From TrEMBL:
The gene is iolG. HAMAP family: IolG. Residues 6-126 form the Gfo/Idh/MocA-like oxidoreductase N-terminal domain. It comes from Streptomyces goshikiensis. Residues 134-249 form the GFO/IDH/MocA-like oxidoreductase domain. Homotetramer. This is Inositol 2-dehydrogenase. It catalyses: myo-inositol + NAD(+) = scyllo-inosose + NADH + H(+).
């Protein structure tokens, strides 16, 4: 193992390029040595300025490239499983962007491969767990500061959705964050999902069911409601209010600066996730690099990725049928207990 961890970045789109930049600038102890994207120009663009890094069009070639000691996956969800399995074949630690896989069956195959190795190597990029506000809320809940949790009221708003965004992705690509955050904050599994879809916003692209309201029921009897609205227009907003028997706490209202002027007051709203969660992405990467350098993983596990995928699958059924749908989970293997 060299003194700086050699990383292959798979997928050189928005998140791949952002993570590669962070590894170069704000995360010590690591360097990008390979970048893969079927769009070779994107891979070349990302390696430009990264000393010693090579561009590839094929994930397998990048994972097998000289000096690769860990793999960061930022390709679209359907491509994750193949890249993770390539990394696990070489026993390399992995940080995989969410969702681990879009369907639970793929996540189960990832868990099987990891269990065959007998140790954890996969971390899922549920970066909210590294956000300072989420961490404080988790500490408060764990300390019993709100008493028994009754509700989480969540709002997840994006200014605009990409052109390729589908109605299913509101659940499997966006609400998947709330699914993981709720499981983690409450330390409970989600047992059933219901989805309500109002008349779409006139700002939503033709055919997109945006916004939606997703209701999650938990094993401890709490209810989580999530407003997902990916074309809200005004900015990027992620809020969560926990209500317990002894009080409530809310995160996500943060305004960096409140300006009072000309008879008005107000602040700014971040325009996208790379701003709102900038510190969380850095902290997530630092922690991953520190563990990967020791050949292991911590943080959100393949089980967490699997459970989130199973909840989202139930959510898609609920959205299609209009019927509350139970979540079916396999037994949790000892590696993930
Ligand atoms: N944690 C977060 O807040 C956050 C934010 C945005 C996106 N994401 C996740 O990051 C991943 C990437 O999203 P994005 O917004 O960067 O998408 P993007 O479309 O900007 O980039 C994806 C890139 O992957 C490339 N690609 C496609 N198939 C590939 C393959 N088989 N191997 C390697 N590269 C391949 C594409 O050519 C593209 O350049 C997704 O899983 C997404 O859900 C997470
Ligand atoms: O892939 C992105 C990303 O995960 C963002 O954090 C989320 O706010 C978006 O809704 C989603 O599409």
């Amino acid at each position: 193992m060299s003194s700086t961890l050699g990383i292959a970045v798979i997928g050189a789109g928005r998140m791949g390029a952002d993570h590669a930049r962070r590894i170069g600038r704000t995360v010590g102890g690591a360097r990008v040595v390979a970048v893969a994207d079927p769009d070779g120009d994107r891979a070349k663009e990302v390696v430009r300025g990264l000393e010693g890094a090579c561009a590839y069009t094929d994930a397998a070639a990048a994972v097998a490239a000289p000096g690769v000691e860990a793999v960061l996956i930022a390709s679209p969800g359907p491509a994750h499983e193949e890249a993770i399995l390539l990394a696990l074949e070489r026993e390399l630690p992995v940080l995989c962007e969410k969702p681990l896989t879009p369907e639970p069956a793929g996540a189960l195959r990832v868990m099987e491969a990891e269990q065959r190795l007998g140790r954890r190597l996969v971390q899922v990029g549920f970066m909210r767990r590294y956000d300072a506000e989420y961490e404080r809320l988790k500490e408060l809940l764990d300390a019993g500061g709100l008493g028994r949790p009754l509700f989480l009221h969540c709002r997840h708003r994006n200014a605009l959705s990409p052109s390729w965004f589908t109605s299913d992705m509101l659940i499997s690509d966006s609400v998947v964050h709330e699914v993981d955050a709720a499981r983690w904050l409450l330390d409970q599994e989600i047992t059933a999902v219901s989805v309500l879809s109002p008349t779409p916003s006139s700002a939503a692209p033709e055919g997109l069911r945006d916004p939606r309201l997703v209701l999650l029921e938990t094993s401890g009897g709490a209810i989580v409601d999530v407003e997902i609205f990916v074309n809200c227009g005004f900015g990027y907003q992620v809020q969560c209010e926990a209500v317990g028997e002894a009080g409530s706490a809310r995160i996500g209202d943060g305004h960096a600066m409140v300006v009072q002027s000309a008879g008005r007051w107000g602040g700014e709203i971040a325009q996208d996730f790379t701003v709102r969660f900038a510190d969380a992405y850095d902290r997530q990467l630092r922690r991953w690099v520190a563990q990967a350098a020791r050949g292991r993983a911590e943080g959100p596990t393949a089980w967490d990725g699997y459970a989130a995928a199973a909840v989202c699958e139930a959510g898609l059924t609920a959205a299609r049928t209009g019927v509350r749908t139970a979540v079916e989970l396999t037994e949790r293997p000892p590696l993930y207990r």
